[in-house]
Amino acid sequence: MATGGYVGKILYVNLTDGRIEEIETSKYEQFGGGHGMGSALFWDLVEDKTVDGYHPDNLITMMTSPLSGTLVPSASGRTECNFIGLIAYPIGWYTRSNFGGRFSGELKYAGWDGIAIQGKSETPVWINIANDKVTIEDATDLWGLDTYETQEEIWSTVSKGNTDDGTWYGVGTGRDSGRTLQKPAVATIGKAGENLNRNACILHDAGNAAGQGGLGGVFGSKNLKAVSVIGTGSVEIADPAALIAARKEFQDKFAYNVDAPEMESPVPNFPAYGAITLSPGFGPLYLPTHVPSRPQGCIGCYKNCRRRLSTGVSNEDQCVESLFFINGSNQIDQNKATDLLDKAGLNVYDVFNHSYLYALNQMGIMGPGMEIESSLPFEKYGTIEFMEAYVDCIINRTDIGADLAEGMARAAKKWGRWEIDTASGLLDRPNWGFCQHYEPRLEVEWSYGSILGDRDINEHGLNFYVHWHSIIRGMVGQEPAISAEDMVNLIAEGTGVGDPMGWDYSEEGIYGDPKVQAISWHRHYTRFWKQSLAFCDWAWPNFINFNSADGDMSGASPEFEVRFYNAVTGKSLTWEEGLEIGHKIWTLDKAIWTLQGRHRDLEVFADYVYDVPTEAPDGLPMFIDGKWEYNAGLGRTLDRDKFEDFKTRFYANEGWDTATGWPTRATLEALDLGYVADELESNGKLGA
Amino acid sequence: MTEQVADIESVVELPAPDQELAERATRRVEWADRFRVFRMAAGAGTLADDLYSMAEIGRFVLGTRWEMAGELDAKVTFNWVDVSKLITWIENVAGDKELADAIAGLNIDPKAPYKAQVDLLGPLLVSRYTQYMEVLGPETEESADSEESEGSE
After folding, report:
1. DSSP H or E run through A575
2. How far is A443 from chain B (nearest CA, A)?
């Protein structure tokens, strides 16, 4: 039992009958927090795990970790959400998404380790959490408001307007109920969620979104507009001195030194370089210098990768949402387009392929009087006017938006384009209908992890090293800051896998046994350390130190994840034990997908991944002719037979049936998941 | 696109194109003749896009001009084109063999840092586009700019 980190109880809210109950956190503490606890709760609370994402029995968990709301750097501000998703194709897998900001900290300060929401209200509601007081409020007047308007209304309601003069917020009505300088942390849907879009997200503050999976549509299906939380408590730390010491040492050794940086972009105003140096505010591409801005971060962060701008447009957007209108003619309009998504609560990654729609228009297939009828102003493609019309039609389900609200994959299927366009790559959706993120034929821990899981994994921890480091240096005419050989050696050592060939992205390396070990490590690491303990994806793991002052480029991982966790909780967990918990959570998820209909025959990529060679250069470490090098990987396709053979060896490594990909009883029992084996067996889906 | 580059003095000037070539090279092409390009963005990976005219391609190449970062209304992304495919496209689709040969003559190393590649390629594209506009007249340039601003780039 831990002495710190957890606050002791999980909130359960049933919107069908209005039940508000407490669940003891200790029952689920073996799963760490976040995703692991969410999956364990899902298993216990959702009797029929095959229900559709829109079904009232679908459970939404919004979980913190023992590190949330503490001073652990870049591990304090993420909230992990689990639910049956809406967007994956052809089956809406049980899935996850998380978001940053202040929500998880406020939840801990209010005395909750997480929230589990089930059922469906007959009328629009929002959940109001102020310390121990939890109420289900009428949201009739909020329905129809955008995400920013909704948050402002709830802030006003909860704080009762007592902050106009800058004084502290009162929580509750009594003196002893506490005071805080924080606004309530609100996660809300916009119009897209209200209209049950499969591609709707939830948004918190200006730019924190849980996007992939369609959580906004799940909120909407429950008539749940928002969840608000404010707290005035604190989080007990088992060893505060150890935590402070670890944070200071971490900051000194690994953070970007704003006064005297060890490495700096040779090109001014080149934020992408911060992916290497971890400099503040590096996220949102190029910002016009006539728009003042300052870095902003999630609670507890040491990097602060976002920015707030004097215009207030596109605040806190630092990832793919800021690239929604990347083909626009100027940055101002690009930022405006991002705001359209934020306010509507629309997940950028599903609507990213507007160039695909334009291609259909140019092919004479989509447009007025064409095979796919649409009155979208394609003659204005490339302008903000087009983007406004595009977003408007999706969130209001008009024109082709009626199809696109079901997600790009389902829309393409309805139009009769899915098979032909994913075969050619015109529609580059490699796995489960999700948008291509990083090159699936080359950066395989991304693509393999995605197809063996439930979504585009969106896990950048290795990606910043193996992919972005050499490309970003090359963008500005620099050689890599570290050789390919030194890079893979540091990663192999840091992960504990040991064999650098696990990070060989050559034609042979992507199918080898070392790659099996590397992919397995990645699935286990992310499931526990990132998604259950909520170490931020944009900061952890830290295997290579580009800010080293003494030339030693060894990173903070695995030492510091372990030190931080143990300082907060008072436990003595090892890195390897954490990875084994990750294996347990990953296998539990696999069991849920198995019940939903997963079979190894479904775990295949879109045809273009196998049949169409890569055309754009990458910069991944490859072992070729006996030497390590960064290689462009042009002309690469995946080999179907070799990938199938890889899957067989991967399943065996995980302890899953190689014929079906289903977990076996022996594996489940070894992971203390015998009850999961029983349910799989009763459904005829236990691996042999 | 002509106003976006100043340092074109060092570019070898090609013989002026005739009216027919200028019109052909600057026309908007059909989907079947599109030119595929790629943007590289740290948050989203490598993004493919299709361009439909010489003006769009020029703007795209010049998009990687670091000195413009931060200027009012500037838009700078890391854009990549396959130079060998561009040479083929310019010769076979745009129909400007002289420009294609001139680009080939630059001997751009495909393994060189991309900044070095576009520093060579960009001024030549601008110089040639300026020649097209001189042949076609200022009204055409204005019209072309207006039309292209409504295109994909």
Report:
1. helix A575-596
2. 11
CB contact, 8 Å: A613 with chain B?
no
Q: Say how far apart CA A310 and CA A6 lie, in whole Å.
A: 38
**Contact call for B45 and A275, based on CB within 8 A:** no
Biggest alpha carbon–alpha carbon distance for chain B: 44
Please list the rounded mean pLDDT of every run of 10 residues in chain B (153 residues): 48 89 96 93 83 91 60 65 96 97 93 81 90 84 51 42
Instruction: List the single best residue of B4, B46, B120 to mutate versus A (max A Cβ within 10 A).
Output: B46
* Interface check A288 vs B, CB under 8 A: yes
pLDDT tens for B128-141 read 999 999 999 866 65
Chain Cα centroid distance, residue A63: 13
Min distance A278 CA to chain B CA atoms (Å): 13
DSSP letter for A519, please: H
Q: What is the ipTM of this complex?
A: 0.87
Chain B residues within 8 A of A362 when measuring between CB atoms: 30-31, 34, 50, 52
CA pair distance A335, A544, nearest whole angstrom:
32
Residue type, A181: L
CA diameter of chain A: 73
Between the alpha carbon of residue A280 and those of residues A302, A332, A537, B150, the distances in Å are: 9, 21, 16, 35
Do residue A288 and residue B45 have CB atoms under 8 angstroms apart? no
Nearest to A64, CA basis, from A541, A559, A568: A568
3-state secondary structure of A372: strand
Q: Write the pLDDT tens digit of every residue in B117-129.
A: 888 898 899 899 9
pTM of the predicted structure, to 2 decimals: 0.94
Asked if the C-beta of A291 comes within 8 angstroms of chain B's C-beta atoms, the answer is: no
